[in-house]
Amino acid sequence: MVSFVQSVVLWNSNRTQAGASSDDLCEICGLKPKFVEKGFKHPYCSRTCARSSGQGASPTACLLPGCRATGKPAFSNFCSEDHAVAGVRQGQVAGCARCGVQPSTVGELCVACDRRARAGPKLRELNPDSSTFKNLRAQFLSEWESSVGDLPTFERAYEAILTRDVRVRHDVYRAKIGGSEEIRTFYSTLCVCDLGSKDNNLCNGQTCGICCTVKSAFISFAFGETSMGGRFGPGVYSYRNPARAHTFSTSCTTSPYQVMVACDAIVQPGQVSDEDSGANEESIFIPTADGILPAYVIMYTV
Protein backbone atom coordinates (compact mmCIF):
# COMPACT_ATOMS: atom_id res chain seq x y z
CA MET A 1 0.00 0.00 0.00
CA VAL A 2 2.84 2.38 0.91
CA SER A 3 4.65 1.62 -2.32
CA PHE A 4 1.41 2.27 -4.25
CA VAL A 5 0.96 5.75 -2.68
CA GLN A 6 4.61 6.58 -3.38
CA SER A 7 4.12 5.55 -6.97
CA VAL A 8 1.03 7.81 -7.32
CA VAL A 9 2.89 10.79 -5.81
CA LEU A 10 5.86 10.20 -8.10
CA TRP A 11 3.54 9.88 -11.11
CA ASN A 12 1.75 13.17 -10.24
CA SER A 13 5.09 14.91 -9.79
CA ASN A 14 6.37 13.69 -13.13
CA ARG A 15 3.02 14.62 -14.76
CA THR A 16 3.13 18.19 -13.39
CA GLN A 17 6.69 18.70 -14.50
CA ALA A 18 5.97 17.23 -17.90
CA GLY A 19 3.20 19.75 -18.44
CA ALA A 20 5.42 22.77 -17.78
CA SER A 21 9.02 23.72 -18.43
CA SER A 22 11.42 24.19 -15.53
CA ASP A 23 11.24 27.96 -16.06
CA ASP A 24 7.50 27.88 -15.40
CA LEU A 25 7.67 25.86 -12.17
CA CYS A 26 7.91 27.27 -8.64
CA GLU A 27 11.54 27.82 -7.67
CA ILE A 28 10.93 26.32 -4.19
CA CYS A 29 8.79 23.20 -4.62
CA GLY A 30 9.47 22.67 -8.31
CA LEU A 31 6.02 21.08 -8.68
CA LYS A 32 3.43 23.80 -9.34
CA PRO A 33 3.41 26.58 -11.94
CA LYS A 34 4.61 29.99 -10.87
CA PHE A 35 1.98 32.52 -9.77
CA VAL A 36 1.08 35.02 -12.54
CA GLU A 37 -0.46 38.37 -11.60
CA LYS A 38 -1.43 40.94 -14.24
CA GLY A 39 1.05 39.48 -16.68
CA PHE A 40 3.94 39.35 -14.17
CA LYS A 41 5.29 35.91 -13.30
CA HIS A 42 6.36 35.58 -9.66
CA PRO A 43 9.09 33.04 -8.69
CA TYR A 44 6.77 31.11 -6.33
CA CYS A 45 3.54 29.22 -6.73
CA SER A 46 1.87 30.14 -3.44
CA ARG A 47 2.08 32.00 -0.16
CA THR A 48 3.46 28.89 1.55
CA CYS A 49 6.43 28.62 -0.79
CA ALA A 50 7.03 32.39 -0.66
CA ARG A 51 7.23 32.27 3.14
CA SER A 52 9.52 29.24 3.13
CA SER A 53 11.86 31.08 0.76
CA GLY A 54 12.48 33.73 3.36
CA GLN A 55 11.38 36.45 0.90
CA GLY A 56 8.22 37.52 2.78
CA ALA A 57 4.56 37.16 1.97
CA SER A 58 3.35 35.83 -1.33
CA PRO A 59 2.02 38.13 -4.06
CA THR A 60 -1.52 37.04 -3.12
CA ALA A 61 -1.24 37.94 0.55
CA CYS A 62 -3.06 40.89 2.13
CA LEU A 63 -1.02 44.07 1.71
CA LEU A 64 -1.38 45.01 5.36
CA PRO A 65 1.88 44.10 7.17
CA GLY A 66 1.49 41.12 9.49
CA CYS A 67 -1.68 39.79 7.85
CA ARG A 68 -1.44 36.29 6.34
CA ALA A 69 -4.90 36.25 4.80
CA THR A 70 -5.32 36.31 1.03
CA GLY A 71 -5.74 39.71 -0.57
CA LYS A 72 -8.83 40.29 -2.68
CA PRO A 73 -9.14 42.52 -5.77
CA ALA A 74 -12.44 43.87 -4.42
CA PHE A 75 -10.51 45.39 -1.50
CA SER A 76 -7.49 46.58 -3.55
CA ASN A 77 -5.51 43.44 -2.65
CA PHE A 78 -6.27 43.74 1.06
CA CYS A 79 -8.18 40.87 2.65
CA SER A 80 -11.08 43.01 3.91
CA GLU A 81 -12.55 46.51 3.88
CA ASP A 82 -11.22 47.12 7.42
CA HIS A 83 -7.68 46.26 6.35
CA ALA A 84 -8.03 48.42 3.23
CA VAL A 85 -9.01 51.40 5.40
CA ALA A 86 -6.13 50.61 7.76
CA GLY A 87 -3.75 50.47 4.80
CA VAL A 88 -4.74 53.99 3.76
CA ARG A 89 -4.45 55.24 7.33
CA GLN A 90 -0.95 53.74 7.66
CA GLY A 91 0.19 55.09 4.31
CA GLN A 92 0.49 51.68 2.62
CA VAL A 93 -1.55 52.88 -0.36
CA ALA A 94 -2.94 56.20 -1.60
CA GLY A 95 -6.38 57.15 -0.36
CA CYS A 96 -9.38 58.24 -2.43
CA ALA A 97 -9.12 61.89 -3.46
CA ARG A 98 -12.75 62.46 -2.43
CA CYS A 99 -13.41 60.49 0.76
CA GLY A 100 -9.80 59.86 1.82
CA VAL A 101 -10.85 56.64 3.54
CA GLN A 102 -10.81 53.87 0.94
CA PRO A 103 -7.87 53.12 -1.42
CA SER A 104 -7.97 54.87 -4.79
CA THR A 105 -8.74 52.17 -7.35
CA VAL A 106 -10.51 54.06 -10.17
CA GLY A 107 -8.12 56.83 -11.03
CA GLU A 108 -7.94 59.03 -7.94
CA LEU A 109 -11.25 57.76 -6.55
CA CYS A 110 -12.37 54.64 -4.72
CA VAL A 111 -15.04 52.44 -6.28
CA ALA A 112 -17.90 53.89 -4.17
CA CYS A 113 -17.00 57.53 -4.83
CA ASP A 114 -16.51 56.86 -8.53
CA ARG A 115 -19.95 55.23 -8.67
CA ARG A 116 -21.55 58.21 -6.93
CA ALA A 117 -19.74 60.66 -9.18
CA ARG A 118 -20.96 58.85 -12.28
CA ALA A 119 -24.53 58.60 -11.00
CA GLY A 120 -25.04 62.37 -10.81
CA PRO A 121 -28.30 64.16 -10.00
CA LYS A 122 -31.62 62.65 -11.07
CA LEU A 123 -35.17 63.94 -11.29
CA ARG A 124 -38.22 62.58 -9.48
CA GLU A 125 -41.63 63.83 -10.52
CA LEU A 126 -43.78 65.31 -7.78
CA ASN A 127 -47.32 64.05 -7.27
CA PRO A 128 -49.76 66.90 -8.10
CA ASP A 129 -51.74 66.00 -4.97
CA SER A 130 -48.71 66.23 -2.67
CA SER A 131 -48.15 69.18 -0.35
CA THR A 132 -44.70 69.75 -1.87
CA PHE A 133 -46.19 70.20 -5.34
CA LYS A 134 -48.95 72.50 -4.08
CA ASN A 135 -46.57 74.64 -2.00
CA LEU A 136 -44.13 75.00 -4.89
CA ARG A 137 -46.92 75.97 -7.27
CA ALA A 138 -48.27 78.54 -4.81
CA GLN A 139 -44.80 80.04 -4.33
CA PHE A 140 -44.10 80.14 -8.07
CA LEU A 141 -47.38 81.92 -8.87
CA SER A 142 -47.34 84.30 -5.89
CA GLU A 143 -43.76 85.43 -6.68
CA TRP A 144 -44.54 85.95 -10.37
CA GLU A 145 -44.72 89.70 -10.92
CA SER A 146 -45.08 90.93 -14.47
CA SER A 147 -46.81 93.84 -16.14
CA VAL A 148 -47.20 91.83 -19.33
CA GLY A 149 -49.63 88.94 -19.79
CA ASP A 150 -51.49 86.74 -17.35
CA LEU A 151 -50.09 84.34 -14.78
CA PRO A 152 -48.51 81.21 -16.26
CA THR A 153 -49.95 77.75 -15.85
CA PHE A 154 -47.95 75.52 -13.51
CA GLU A 155 -47.97 72.15 -15.28
CA ARG A 156 -45.47 69.69 -13.76
CA ALA A 157 -42.59 69.68 -11.30
CA TYR A 158 -39.61 67.45 -10.51
CA GLU A 159 -37.46 67.24 -7.42
CA ALA A 160 -33.70 67.27 -8.09
CA ILE A 161 -32.14 64.30 -6.27
CA LEU A 162 -28.58 65.50 -5.67
CA THR A 163 -25.51 63.53 -4.66
CA ARG A 164 -24.28 63.66 -1.08
CA ASP A 165 -21.05 65.50 -1.90
CA VAL A 166 -22.99 68.35 -3.53
CA ARG A 167 -25.10 68.83 -0.42
CA VAL A 168 -22.04 68.61 1.84
CA ARG A 169 -20.34 71.40 -0.13
CA HIS A 170 -23.49 73.49 0.21
CA ASP A 171 -23.66 72.95 3.97
CA VAL A 172 -19.98 73.81 4.40
CA TYR A 173 -20.46 77.03 2.42
CA ARG A 174 -23.45 78.03 4.57
CA ALA A 175 -21.49 77.36 7.78
CA LYS A 176 -18.70 79.67 6.61
CA ILE A 177 -21.03 82.65 6.28
CA GLY A 178 -22.20 83.90 9.65
CA GLY A 179 -25.80 85.08 9.69
CA SER A 180 -26.48 83.75 6.19
CA GLU A 181 -29.99 83.19 4.90
CA GLU A 182 -31.27 80.57 2.44
CA ILE A 183 -33.87 81.89 0.02
CA ARG A 184 -35.81 80.54 -2.96
CA THR A 185 -34.69 81.90 -6.31
CA PHE A 186 -35.50 81.00 -9.91
CA TYR A 187 -33.19 80.37 -12.85
CA SER A 188 -33.86 79.70 -16.53
CA THR A 189 -31.89 79.43 -19.73
CA LEU A 190 -31.82 77.55 -23.03
CA CYS A 191 -33.38 74.07 -23.05
CA VAL A 192 -32.75 71.98 -26.17
CA CYS A 193 -34.23 68.64 -25.07
CA ASP A 194 -37.75 67.34 -24.50
CA LEU A 195 -37.41 67.18 -20.73
CA GLY A 196 -40.79 66.64 -19.11
CA SER A 197 -42.44 66.00 -22.44
CA LYS A 198 -41.05 62.72 -23.79
CA ASP A 199 -39.13 61.55 -20.74
CA ASN A 200 -37.99 62.66 -17.29
CA ASN A 201 -34.25 62.18 -17.78
CA LEU A 202 -31.65 64.91 -17.88
CA CYS A 203 -29.98 64.89 -21.30
CA ASN A 204 -26.25 64.74 -22.05
CA GLY A 205 -26.24 67.59 -24.54
CA GLN A 206 -23.47 70.14 -24.02
CA THR A 207 -25.71 72.89 -25.39
CA CYS A 208 -28.69 72.25 -23.10
CA GLY A 209 -28.35 74.92 -20.43
CA ILE A 210 -31.02 73.49 -18.13
CA CYS A 211 -29.65 69.93 -18.03
CA CYS A 212 -26.01 71.07 -17.79
CA THR A 213 -26.67 73.26 -14.76
CA VAL A 214 -28.88 70.75 -12.95
CA LYS A 215 -26.54 67.80 -13.56
CA SER A 216 -23.49 69.77 -12.40
CA ALA A 217 -25.33 71.67 -9.64
CA PHE A 218 -24.25 74.99 -11.24
CA ILE A 219 -20.59 74.00 -11.55
CA SER A 220 -20.82 74.13 -15.35
CA PHE A 221 -23.20 75.64 -17.86
CA ALA A 222 -23.99 75.20 -21.55
CA PHE A 223 -21.04 75.08 -23.97
CA GLY A 224 -18.66 74.25 -21.12
CA GLU A 225 -18.87 77.63 -19.40
CA THR A 226 -17.91 77.50 -15.71
CA SER A 227 -19.72 80.65 -14.59
CA MET A 228 -22.13 83.37 -15.65
CA GLY A 229 -21.15 86.98 -16.27
CA GLY A 230 -22.80 90.00 -14.67
CA ARG A 231 -22.26 93.32 -12.95
CA PHE A 232 -20.89 91.62 -9.84
CA GLY A 233 -18.42 89.48 -11.78
CA PRO A 234 -18.35 85.74 -12.57
CA GLY A 235 -20.70 83.58 -10.55
CA VAL A 236 -24.35 82.44 -10.62
CA TYR A 237 -27.24 84.87 -11.19
CA SER A 238 -30.86 83.98 -10.43
CA TYR A 239 -34.05 85.87 -9.47
CA ARG A 240 -36.60 85.89 -6.70
CA ASN A 241 -39.22 86.86 -9.28
CA PRO A 242 -39.76 83.92 -11.67
CA ALA A 243 -41.11 86.34 -14.29
CA ARG A 244 -37.64 87.89 -14.53
CA ALA A 245 -36.05 84.45 -14.89
CA HIS A 246 -38.63 83.67 -17.59
CA THR A 247 -37.11 86.35 -19.85
CA PHE A 248 -34.09 84.04 -20.26
CA SER A 249 -36.16 80.91 -20.93
CA THR A 250 -35.68 79.55 -24.44
CA SER A 251 -36.85 76.25 -25.91
CA CYS A 252 -35.64 74.71 -29.18
CA THR A 253 -37.86 71.62 -29.15
CA THR A 254 -41.44 70.63 -29.85
CA SER A 255 -42.15 70.45 -26.11
CA PRO A 256 -45.19 72.51 -25.07
CA TYR A 257 -43.45 73.54 -21.83
CA GLN A 258 -41.15 76.28 -20.71
CA VAL A 259 -38.59 75.06 -18.16
CA MET A 260 -37.36 76.79 -15.01
CA VAL A 261 -35.21 75.74 -12.05
CA ALA A 262 -36.27 76.59 -8.49
CA CYS A 263 -33.11 77.06 -6.43
CA ASP A 264 -32.01 77.15 -2.79
CA ALA A 265 -29.58 80.07 -2.61
CA ILE A 266 -27.47 81.18 0.36
CA VAL A 267 -27.14 84.96 0.57
CA GLN A 268 -24.94 87.23 2.66
CA PRO A 269 -26.49 89.09 5.62
CA GLY A 270 -28.29 92.15 4.26
CA GLN A 271 -27.89 91.09 0.63
CA VAL A 272 -31.65 90.86 0.10
CA SER A 273 -34.17 93.34 1.51
CA ASP A 274 -37.90 92.72 1.18
CA GLU A 275 -38.51 96.43 1.85
CA ASP A 276 -36.84 97.36 -1.43
CA SER A 277 -39.60 97.79 -4.01
CA GLY A 278 -37.27 96.77 -6.82
CA ALA A 279 -35.82 93.74 -5.06
CA ASN A 280 -37.75 91.27 -7.22
CA GLU A 281 -36.33 92.82 -10.38
CA GLU A 282 -32.72 92.55 -9.24
CA SER A 283 -30.68 89.43 -9.82
CA ILE A 284 -29.36 87.49 -6.83
CA PHE A 285 -25.60 87.01 -7.16
CA ILE A 286 -23.93 83.90 -5.72
CA PRO A 287 -20.12 83.93 -6.17
CA THR A 288 -19.67 80.14 -6.20
CA ALA A 289 -21.71 77.07 -7.15
CA ASP A 290 -21.43 75.83 -3.55
CA GLY A 291 -23.82 78.59 -2.53
CA ILE A 292 -26.76 77.55 -4.73
CA LEU A 293 -28.55 74.26 -5.35
CA PRO A 294 -31.07 73.21 -8.02
CA ALA A 295 -34.02 72.12 -5.87
CA TYR A 296 -36.85 71.61 -8.38
CA VAL A 297 -37.37 71.71 -12.15
CA ILE A 298 -40.67 73.34 -13.12
CA MET A 299 -42.64 72.85 -16.35
CA TYR A 300 -45.03 75.71 -17.14
CA THR A 301 -46.84 77.38 -20.02
CA VAL A 302 -47.48 81.07 -20.66
TrEMBL record:
Q: What is this protein called?
A: PARP catalytic domain-containing protein
